[in-house]
Amino acid sequence: MVTLPIEQSKKYNRLINILAIVIPVVVALLLGIRQKVDLGSWTTYLPHINAVINSATAVLLLIGLYFIKQKNVSAHRNVMLMAFTLGFIFLVSYVLYHLSNDSTSFGGQGMIRPVYYFLLISHIGLSVVVVWFVLRAVYFALSGQIARHRAVVKWAYPIWLYVSITGVVVYWLIAPYYQH
């Protein structure tokens, strides 16, 4: 398994800080593009795939917690790296969908409308914040800085789990309004 050298921590911290800013900014800019790129009709399936990815990520996060509570560090590391990989795949898929498809408006009425928007806004806001925490958690784990890893995971884990679960809930709420 890869182990990152601690003596290069300044370089890695700088990279994490840059990525934590660049990723949300690039996603926001791509979402703001009015002229969509025709990547084919297959992209209309990406929200459904993203919901599966978010569901799998949430399950992996729970399994990862189970393994670390059992002191099975190797299984914990493997599961958490799978969750991290799914997060990267989700990000690519999300960008491809919004680069090639118009955003879908929520059509729900009544009390479900403010619930939907609360979940959506908290999901988006926390998805921006969680990038920095997750990147730091992964770096600290891979560099063997376990005390620092534990400290950042106290924030990263619940935020990441919330973002994964609310991503699925938001999907189920808006899914009836997708154009096919």
Automatic annotation (TrEMBL):
Is the keyword Transmembrane in the record? yes
What Pfam families does the entry give?
DUF420
Q: Which InterPro entries match?
A: DUF420 (IPR007352)
- Does Membrane appear among the keywords? yes
**From which residue to which does the signal peptide run?**
none
Keywords, A to Z? Membrane, Transmembrane, Transmembrane helix
Report the transmembrane regions from the record.
Answer: 12-33, 45-67, 79-97, 117-139, 159-178
What name goes with this protein? DUF420 domain-containing protein
